[in-house]
UniProtKB/TrEMBL annotation:
The keyword Nucleus applies. It comes from the Eukaryota. Gene3D superfamilies: 1.20.1280.50. Its main location: nucleus. It comes from Bos indicus x Bos taurus (Hybrid cattle). Pathway: Protein modification; protein ubiquitination. It is found in: Nucleus. The gene is FBXO25. GO terms for cellular component: cytoplasm; nucleus; SCF ubiquitin ligase complex. This is F-box only protein 25. InterPro entries: F-box-like_dom_sf (IPR036047), FBX25/32 (IPR040394). Substrate-recognition component of the SCF (SKP1-CUL1-F-box protein)-type E3 ubiquitin ligase complex. May play a role in accumulation of expanded polyglutamine (polyQ) protein huntingtin (HTT). Keywords: Nucleus, Ubl conjugation pathway. The keyword Nucleus applies.
């Protein structure tokens, strides 16, 4: 066996570039900490939950190999994740770059923690978490799984605080609890990263969140200004026509008798069916009333059980086919194409997962 270094099992030294040239990194030396404090930090910054410690990418890669058991504990106060607006998606090794980008790595590096605070990206992130909970949870690395539950905790606390979008979170937690029950009871610890007790603790946390959302009470705010009931009927009707989810229409119709009547408009449900489904699907699930009229509202919920509905998001991730870069639409990325806009493709939550299937 050839001699590779001081320890033949060692993966090699980590190096960093300084003004005096390349120097070897020693994660535990005080000299390195003094040098790093003077180095510029690029877009690949890693922050913990308290934003108290800042490390460079090279240090994090070295420290991740030496991480302590605390990284595997179910403690949301020790989370560690990147805050990048774009990442390079490489699926194979080249002469310049080794390895490939995984779903867990992309989930760690992209800025999902801040995205949930943006109302345009909130639904997108929730839908992505729901798809991961259904089929991709065990494919995430240990750190990615930990960040997954950390971000989920932030989402639940946000909903409990502002009372917005509780139905979406209830559906997400329902799918996640079902998956965790199957993994813990049916599959076992052979496919789970970390101690089985951690997963049991996570399941108990999800059940507690479900109970908190179940007990959530919407408080009525007393305001002397105009309310939704004060708007003219035609404006209320226009608001209902802006919804793309039938359950949102049903929920809004429970607010006042006027909205209840408007939410039963046959033309409203017809437009909704035509937006989400095609004519061939109508013929397969046609529902008629006793008078021979099409029951568009019943048809919508019947078709929803058999076919996926179109998804609408205010801001989504985009993929640049020229640069192979995944980025948030509003943030952009340093594209080298002559016509960058022609290379951009919107990435749905399902497409995001499909990007990392090899």
């Amino acid at each position: 066996m050839p001699f590779l270094g001081q320890d033949w099992r060692s993966p090699g030294w980590s190096w960093m570039k300084t003004e005096d040239g390349w120097k070897r990194c020693d994660a535990w030396s005080q000299e390195l900490e003094g040098e790093n404090s003077q180095c510029d930090i690029g877009h690949g910054i890693i922050l913990n939950s308290e934003d108290e410690e800042i490390f460079s990418n090279e240090e994090h890669e070295f420290a991740s190999k030496k991480r302590k058991k605390d990284h595997f504990r179910n403690d949301t106060n020790t989370q560690c994740f990147y805050r990048e607006n774009w990442i390079y998606v490489h699926k194979e090794s080249t002469r310049e770059r080794h390895g490939y980008c995984t779903l867990g790595e992309a989930f760690n590096r992209l800025d999902f923690s801040s995205a949930i605070q943006d109302i345009r990206r909130f639904n997108y992130v929730v839908r992505l978490l729901q798809l991961i909970a259904k089929s991709q949870l065990t494919s995430l690395s240990g750190v990615a799984q930990k960040n997954y539950f950390n971000i989920l905790d932030k989402i639940v606390q946000k909903v409990l605080g502002d009372h917005q979008n509780p139905r979406l979170i209830k559906d997400l937690l329902q799918d996640l609890s079902s998956t965790l029950c199957i993994l813990i009871r049916g599959v076992g610890k052979s496919v789970l990263v970390g101690n089985i007790n951690i997963w049991i603790c996570r399941l108990e946390t999800v059940l507690r969140w479900q109970q908190q959302l179940q007990n959530l009470q919407m408080t009525e705010q007393v305001d002397s200004g105009l309310t939704l009931s004060d708007l003219p009927v035609h404006m209320l009707s226009n608001i209902l026509y802006r919804f793309s989810d039938g359950w949102d229409i049903v929920t809004l119709g429970q607010v006042t008798p006027t909205l209840s009547a408007l939410s039963e408009d046959r033309q409203l449900w017809k437009k909704l069916c035509q937006y989400h489904f095609g004519e061939k699907q109508f013929c397969r699930h046609l529902i008629l009333s006793e008078k021979g009229h099409v029951e568009w509202k019943l048809m919508y919920f019947a078709l929803q059980k058999h076919y996926p509905t179109k998804e609408q998001y205010g801001d989504t991730l985009h993929f640049c086919r020229h640069c192979s870069i995944l980025f948030w639409k509003d943030s952009g990325h340093p594209c080298t194409a002559a016509d960058p806009d022609s290379c951009f493709t919107p990435v749905s939550p399902q497409h995001f997962i499909d990007l990392f299937k090899y």
